[in-house]
Specification:
This protein is α/β, with parallel strands linked by helices. It has two domains: 54 residues, no CATH class; 297 residues, Leucine-rich repeat, LRR (right-handed beta-alpha superhelix), CATH 3.80.10. The chain is 29% helix and 16% strand. It contains 15 helices and 15 strands. Strand 14 and strand 15 form a beta hairpin. The radius of gyration is 26 Å and the shape is globular. The two termini are 36 Å apart.
Length: 429
C-alpha cells in the first residue's frame, strides 16, 4: 500500500506504542514506502530497518560494492549491525571468492542464499561459507566450480537444517556428492541439472549415487536433468529399476485391460510397492532412455501424492503411462513429457479428459515432433505453445488452461472446461 503522510499527522506517531508501529510496518508492501516510514522518527526507523534488510536482491556490481561498504561501516556499531537483519540474499553479480567472503561474514543469520552467476566461486571461499552462516536452510548455486570439498563442508555444518538445495551447471561435481548429502536428512527439495556428474575419477558409481539419494527420508521434490546420461536408476521404486525392466509384468494386473502390456504372462504376480519417498509431490527425471511404462506405474502407485511429474527423453514409455497417471494421481496438476518418442496426441487427450485438476501438459518434441496443432483443432490457439521445425512445420510443445471439445463415437460433442491456476513447471533447464 502507498503511504501519503502530512507533517502534522506524522507528529502523532511519536505517541504510538511500538507494537502498533510494528504491526503497521508489517502491512507495508513496497520497499519505497518502508524507506519513507524509516524517516518518520527514531522508533519507526528502529522497526523499519530490519524489514528493509531482511531480503536482499542484488543485481549490479556497484550495488554490491555499496552494500559491502554499508555492512562494513555498520559492523563497528554492535547494536546496529545491518547484516544481522539479513535473512535471504539473491545475488546476480559474478562475485570473486574474496567478494563472497566479504559479504558472507557480515550476515550470520542468513538462511537463504542464491548465487545465480557463481562462475568465479571456488572451494577457496565456499568451504568457509558454512562457518559464517551456520543456519542456512536453502541454497541455489549456478555456474560454480566448487567440488566435493565444498559439498562435504556443507554436509558437516548444515546437515541438521538444510532443506532446499539446487545445483545448476556446476560441472566439477560428481556422483560422490550424494554420499556427502546422505547426511543431510532434513533435505526436502533436491534439484541437480546440467552438472555432468559422470566423472570417471569418482569412486562412486551411478548406482551408488542412486542408493545414497534414496536414503534421504524426507524428499518431497526431486529433479535431476542431464541429457547425456541415463538417470533411470534414480527412479525411486523397489525393487530396482533394472529388475522392473526385466520383469515389467510384475504389477497389479486388475488395473488395466488384458492387453495393457504386450506379452503379459498368463499368471501375473502382484508387486507390492513401498514408497521410497512417502511425501513426494514433485518429480522430474531426464534423460531416462530405458524407462518403461511399468516402472512409471510402480512409481505412481507407491507415491500417490504426486502433483507434478515429468520425464525427458524416454524411448520406451507410451500412452499407457499417461493412462496410469490419470488412474492413480487424482491431484495431478502438471505433467511434463519432453522428447518422449511414443507419446501421442490421443494419449494427451485422454489424460486431459480424466484429470480434473490438470493445469498444464508439456509435450515438447514428443512423438518426434508429430503432435501438431491440428490434433487439437477444437482448442483455443492461445492455450497452446507452438514450436517450429527448421522446415517450418508447427508442433505443440505445451497445452494449458483450455477448453477442449471431444467427440466420442455414438455420443454428441461435449465441452469440458479446465480452468485452474497456471502451475510453475520444475523444468531443470
Amino acid at each position: 500500500m502507498s503511504l501519503f503522510l502530512s507533517f502534522s499527522f506524522m507528529n502523532h506517531f511519536d505517541h504510538l506504542p511500538s507494537e502498533v508501529i510494528s504491526l503497521i510496518l508489517n502491512l507495508v508492501d513496497e520497499t519505497c514506502d518502508l524507506y519513507t516510514c524509516a524517516l518518520i522518527n527514531k522508533t519507526f526507523y528502529k522497526y523499519a530497518t530490519p524489514l528493509l534488510w531482511e531480503h536482499l536482491d542484488l543485481n549490479g556490481h556497484r550495488t554490491f560494492s555499496y552494500l559491502i561498504d554499508n555492512l562494513e561501516a555498520s559492523s563497528s556499531l554492535r547494536s546496529n549491525s545491518l547484516g544481522e537483519f539479513v535473512r535471504s540474499a539473491s545475488i546476480q553479480d559474478r562475485l570473486s571468492d574474496d567478494e563472497l567472503l566479504a559479504f558472507i561474514k557480515h550476515v550470520p543469520q542468513l538462511n537463504d542464499l542464491s548465487l545465480h552467476e557463481a562462475t568465479f566461486i571456488t572451494d577457496d571461499s565456499f568451504e568457509h561459507v558454512p562457518l559464517y552462516v551456520p543456519h542456512l536452510t536453502r541454497l541455489y548455486i549456478r555456474y560454480s566450480s566448487i567440488t566435493q570439498l565444498s559439498i562435504e563442508a556443507m554436509s558437516r555444518h548444515w546437515y541438521r537444517q538444510l532443506n532446499h538445495l539446487e545445483f545448476k551447471r556446476c560441472t566439477d561435481l560428481n556422483y560422490e556428492l550424494f554420499s556427502a548429502l546422505r547426511q543431510c536428512t532434513a533435505l526436502t527439495s533436491l534439484a541437480i541439472s546440467y552438472c555432468w556428474l559422470e566423472n570417471y575419477n569418482a569412486v562412486d558409481t551411478m548406482q551408488d549415487a542412486a542408493r545414497n539419494v534414496m536414503a534421504l527420508p524426507n524428499i518431497t521434490s526431486f529433479c535431476i536433468m542431464d541429457p547425456f546420461s541415463n538417470w533411470t536408476p534414480f527412479l525411486p521404486i523397489t525393487p530396482t529399476a533394472q529388475q522392473l525392466q526385466q520383469q515389467e509384468w510384475r504389477i497389479l494386473p486388475t488395473l488395466f485391460p488384458d492387453d495393457y502390456f504386450d506379452n503379459s504372462p498368463s499368471t501375473p504376480i502382484t508387486l507390492q510397492q513401498q514408497p521410497i519417498w512417502p511425501y513426494l509431490t514433485h518429480f522430474f527425471l531426464g534423460a531416462c532412455r530405458d524407462l518403461t511404462d511399468a516402472m512409471v506405474l510402480a512409481l505412481i502407485q507407491s507415491h500417490p501424492h504426486l502433483v507434478d511429474l515429468g520425464f525427458y527423453h524416454s524411448d520406451m514409455m507410451t500412452d499407457k503411462t499417461l493412462d496410469a497417471i490419470a488412474t492413480h494421481l487424482p491431484n495431478i496438476v502438471n505433467v511434463d513429457m519432453k522428447n518422449v518418442t511414443k507419446i501421442t496426441a490421443a494419449g494427451i487427450r485422454r489424460l486431459i479428459e480424466q484429470c480434473p485438476k490438470l493445469a498444464t501438459v508439456g509435450c515438447d518434441w514428443c512423438n518426434d515432433g508429430n503432435i501438431h496443432p491440428s490434433d487439437f483443432d477444437d482448442v483455443d490457439p492461445s492455450s497452446m505453445e507452438i514450436g517450429h521445425t527448421i522446415t517450418g512445420v508447427s508442433y505443440v510443445t505445451r497445452l494449458y488452461k483450455f477448453n477442449l471439445s471431444i467427440t466420442k463415437v455414438g455420443t454428441p460433442i461435449f465441452s469440458k472446461r479446465i480452468d485452474l491456476f497456471t502451475f510453475s513447471v520444475m523444468l531443470c533447464a
